[in-house]
Amino acid sequence: MNLFAQDLIAVAHSPLQHWLTTLPAQLENWQKEQQHGELPKWLRCVAQLPHIEPQHVSLADTVTINNDSVSDGEQNRIRGLMMQLTPWRKGPFDLHGVHIDTEWRSDFKWQRVLPHLSNNGDLSGRQVLDIGCGSGYHLWRMLEAGADQVWGIDPGQLFMAQFMAIRHFMPAELAARAHWFPLGVEDLPELRAFDTVFSMGVLYHRRSPIDFLTQLRAQLKPGGELVLETLVVEGDEHTVLVPGETYAKMRNVWFIPSTKALLHWMSRVGFKNARVVDESVTTLEEQRATEWMQGQSLADFLDPNDRSRTIEGFPAPRRAVIIANP
Ligand SMILES: Nc1ncnc2c1ncn2[C@@H]1O[C@H](C[S@+](CC[C@H]([NH3+])C(=O)[O-])CC(=O)[O-])[C@@H](O)[C@H]1O
């Protein structure tokens, strides 16, 4: 069965219909050529999850789904299957009493973003795209904020399985409004159709940040809103850090601009009214190893004698949120 059949029907019934000129062929090609070797195993875990009527649902800081009569056996089954989908990086979630304490407290980032969106954070009636959405934690928060439909893309296939596991437990009405496609930003045509585009934690992974910003702008409707979150350094509009082989032990980090440089790049590609609404240093409360992500985390990426530096001697991770219009 086509994994994305329902999502493609949703595209056909949305203002994004023109996406159907490229999307079905890309997904078909992905299913034939690009599947991760472990994906069948991850999808089997999702298929084995018990079917439990969601009684209480809260899309708040911990995305929670509950039913008062869940048995210990069902809980153990959920825990065992979800553990097979580790590492869990973005969350937290609580599924029928199984608390998934992810590496990141992604709710902290949402608190830094939400108050600065237009309409006081009300996304009612909006088509929202999240580029690099990971497990899709923020997609659920966007639905909490009233979005009509939320669309996440990310090339990470484990994250897709995690999203599908969470969606499995959601009430049908919410599940039908949340979509996830295994695409990179570079796979998107110029849709110019979304009311809000989020891209958080992706810019520094791109080799060409100017092309990336251009791609983001090409997804927005006239009058839409971009929410960009990325690593930054302190400095003037000519300051950009291009780290060596690793930054905070991450291998795929290319450009870390100052906020002034980033605003300059954004104006060069045509964004209007770009403004920094938050800038903060990542704390050990926000990113840490847990039972659900037992590998190394921020504490291991910083200089043990000087927490203001990474292990490589660069400034420690500092992140900015920028809002702009196309
Ligand atoms: N070409 C690409 N196109 C789209 N996504 C990509 C690409 N390359 C990598 N990614 C994805 O971008 C996400 C970045 S994580 C931010 C998650 C969430 N947004 C968060 O803000 O918590 C932060 C980090 O890993 O540093 C991962 O899920 C990648 O798979």
Automatic annotation (TrEMBL):
<dbReference type="GO" id="GO:0002098">
    <property type="term" value="P:tRNA wobble uridine modification"/>
</dbReference>
<feature type="binding site">
    <location>
        <position position="90"/>
    </location>
    <ligand>
        <name>carboxy-S-adenosyl-L-methionine</name>
    </ligand>
</feature>
<comment type="function">
    <text>Catalyzes carboxymethyl transfer from carboxy-S-adenosyl-L-methionine (Cx-SAM) to 5-hydroxyuridine (ho5U) to form 5-carboxymethoxyuridine (cmo5U) at position 34 in tRNAs.</text>
</comment>
<feature type="binding site">
    <location>
        <position position="109"/>
    </location>
    <ligand>
        <name>carboxy-S-adenosyl-L-methionine</name>
    </ligand>
</feature>
<feature type="binding site">
    <location>
        <begin position="185"/>
        <end position="186"/>
    </location>
    <ligand>
        <name>carboxy-S-adenosyl-L-methionine</name>
    </ligand>
</feature>
<feature type="binding site">
    <location>
        <position position="319"/>
    </location>
    <ligand>
        <name>carboxy-S-adenosyl-L-methionine</name>
    </ligand>
</feature>
<dbReference type="InterPro" id="IPR010017">
    <property type="entry name" value="CmoB"/>
</dbReference>
<feature type="binding site">
    <location>
        <position position="200"/>
    </location>
    <ligand>
        <name>carboxy-S-adenosyl-L-methionine</name>
    </ligand>
</feature>
<dbReference type="GO" id="GO:0032259">
    <property type="term" value="P:methylation"/>
</dbReference>
<dbReference type="GO" id="GO:0016765">
    <property type="term" value="F:transferase activity, transferring alkyl or aryl (other than methyl) groups"/>
</dbReference>
<feature type="binding site">
    <location>
        <position position="104"/>
    </location>
    <ligand>
        <name>carboxy-S-adenosyl-L-methionine</name>
    </ligand>
</feature>
<keyword id="KW-0489">Methyltransferase</keyword>
<feature type="binding site">
    <location>
        <position position="204"/>
    </location>
    <ligand>
        <name>carboxy-S-adenosyl-L-methionine</name>
    </ligand>
</feature>
<dbReference type="InterPro" id="IPR027555">
    <property type="entry name" value="Mo5U34_MeTrfas-like"/>
</dbReference>
<protein>
    <recommendedName>
        <fullName>tRNA U34 carboxymethyltransferase</fullName>
        <ecNumber>2.5.1.-</ecNumber>
    </recommendedName>
</protein>
<keyword id="KW-0819">tRNA processing</keyword>
<dbReference type="InterPro" id="IPR029063">
    <property type="entry name" value="SAM-dependent_MTases_sf"/>
</dbReference>
<comment type="subunit">
    <text>Homotetramer.</text>
</comment>
<keyword id="KW-0808">Transferase</keyword>
<dbReference type="GO" id="GO:0008168">
    <property type="term" value="F:methyltransferase activity"/>
</dbReference>
<dbReference type="Pfam" id="PF08003">
    <property type="entry name" value="Methyltransf_9"/>
</dbReference>
<feature type="binding site">
    <location>
        <position position="132"/>
    </location>
    <ligand>
        <name>carboxy-S-adenosyl-L-methionine</name>
    </ligand>
</feature>
<comment type="similarity">
    <text>Belongs to the class I-like SAM-binding methyltransferase superfamily. CmoB family.</text>
</comment>
